[in-house]
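Protocol step 4 of 6: structure prediction from sequence.
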Amino acid sequence: MTDALDHGIRFGRIAATLPVTDIVRAEGFYVGLLGFRKTFQNGDPVGFMILKRDDAELHLTLQKHHRAAAFPVAHLMVFDVNALYALCEAEGVRIVKGLRDKDFGLRAFVMEDPDGNRIDVAQPI
């Protein structure tokens, strides 16, 4: 079996799609708190949204019966993990795993969005 690399296929970025039960509330979290900007939405009422900030892109999809996974569903690399951790704590964001240095060279924490989606936030040490 050959893989995509053998065929010269190049990949661009990949964006996580997070299921949410209330897209307006999720937009408030990602845009209002984390500073993403909405670049696209679809549906009436809105059922899908694309958010961007710097090099990060996130897709939200409305899933009324969503139940969050018990593990991180996305990984967000940032340039100042300490500052984002402090902001999340100050704003009452649920922190699942506190800020710590990992043995593989990242300083990281895990937070939950309002729908319980866990996001691992990190920066290289």
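Step 5 (inspection) to follow. The chain has one domain: 13-124.
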